[in-house]
Every structure is written in C-alpha cells, then in structure tokens.
Design brief:
Number of strands: 13
Strand content: 15-25%
CATH topology: Rossmann fold
Mean pLDDT: 95
Oligomer: single chain
Radius of gyration: 19 Å
Structural class: alpha/beta
CATH architecture: 3-Layer(aba) Sandwich
CATH superfamily: NAD(P)-binding Rossmann-like Domain
Low-confidence stretches: none
Amino acid sequence: MIQHIVKQLDPLPPKSKLIIFGGGFSGQRIASLGRRLGTKVLCSRRKESSEGADFIFNTDKKVSNEVFEGVTHVLSCIPPSLTGEDPVLNKLKTQLLNSKTLKWVGYLSTTGVYGDTQGEWVDENTSPNPQQERSIRRFSCEQQWLGTKLPVQIFRLPGIYGPGRSAFESLMAGTTKMIDKPGQVFSRIHVDDIAGAVLFLINLYSQGKNPSLVNIADNLPTNNLEVIAFAAKIAKKSLPSKIPFELAKETMSPMALSFWQENRKVDNKLLCKKLGYSLMYPDFKSGLTNCFSYLK
C-alpha cells in the first residue's frame, strides 16, 4: 500500500513542483505518492470531469503559463499519436526548453521496444527491435525526447497491474481464460513500484546518478497460468480448463494476439542492484496478495 512506499523514500528537494501529463492508472498513482511525500504535484487529464484533473491537456487546449510556473520536474505518461509523434513535445517543447527551473523530465515507455527475444532476457544494453506498431511509435517518442537538450530519463515498463487491474477482475467476473502456450513468459510491475521507482530515480538524478534508460520490472517473469492459479487459490475460486494457444488465438483481438506474439524476460538489475531501489512487490505473489487485500 502506498503508505508503505512513503516510509522507504526520501522527499523530493524543497520547493519541487512535479507536473504529470496523463493522469491514468500510473499517472494518478505517481501523483498520489508525490503528494504524500510533500511535493506539489499537478496532473493533467483530457477532460475537466475526469478524476484527478488538476489541469486539462489535449490537442485543443493550451496549457497556461501558471501551470509551468516554478516547475522542477515533468513526467509524460501520454501515449504517442498514431503518427508516432509525442503529444507533449509537439505542443510544449518550446516551453520546456525555455524553463529556467526545470531539473528533470521523465517519459513512461514500454519494454515492447525490445521486440520478441524468444524468451531471452533483455536489459538496457539490449538493442531495441520493436515489431508491433504501438512499440515502434513508443520508440520513436523515446528518440524524440532523448534528442532534446532536456535532462531526460526514459522508463521502460512491462505489463502493469495493481488494485482494480489484476487477475482478480476476470476471476470474479467468470471470464478468465487459461491460455496454455508452453515457454511463454511475461514480465510485470505493480503500479505502486512504478510510482516508487519514479520518485526514487528523481532523487538519484539530482545526485548525479542519471542513466538515460531504466527498466522498471519485478524480479520474476512468469507465465500467465501460474499467475491465474495463484490468484484463484487465494480468492478460493475454481479454474476453467486450459485452452491451447493455437485454439485460443482464433478468437483473440489483434491487440490481445500481439501480446502473445512476443516473448521476453525483462532484467531489472540496473534499477534494483546498481541504483538500489527496493521493490515493494518483487514478484506476482506479493503483488497479487496486495491486490486481493483491496477486495476484502
């Protein structure tokens, strides 16, 4: 739970102001943690009616100078446009470059930029080889950010889960599918560890420890069947029969199928061993136990 992360993190420097573009699942969690640490945080949404909308950012509305006043840190969680352009840079590059107070910029990307490695490990030194269109667009945005003269860090994330977005939702709804594809593994990260790692890395950056790329993933890539079986065990739910992948893929959406077409394990040694971040949920068992506590 988020109060546990607060105890293991240092607050950001005094008078810090963090602007987060994209207040979705990860963005809201990062904003919440930043505020708990005493930082002023403003989070964007596309509509005023959206939860957690401190200001509006979309293709139609200009961001006021007041939002940027005194900004020290900026994080973009917004996906690329269909043409592979970054919406934040597209509209706000000049304002970011002209800021006299900006010390750090972060961009949430995807480990999908590594492409398919047939189950082999990838780390930050692995050459990107994006194969899905959405991953190609993400890699394009990474290059756009790194091509600026801004103090940028790129965070590559695997499958994101957390309370309200985990294996339990389909279990409770009775829609779980036990897809069996031998050798297939997925890497994951709990949303609280995304928030914790981002705030941890912001502080390290100010100390001169500033790698331009960091994978944020847990310690245990594994197959989906193990994850679902563990969730069913602690929720005391029965499991449906396994479905061979070759049969299941016939009814999959193109998006779902694309996830199963890539197989890789994401190495987190830079984050956890070299930089020293301590994961709150180092594997799916600890993470799902946390998610289940919200259902009780």
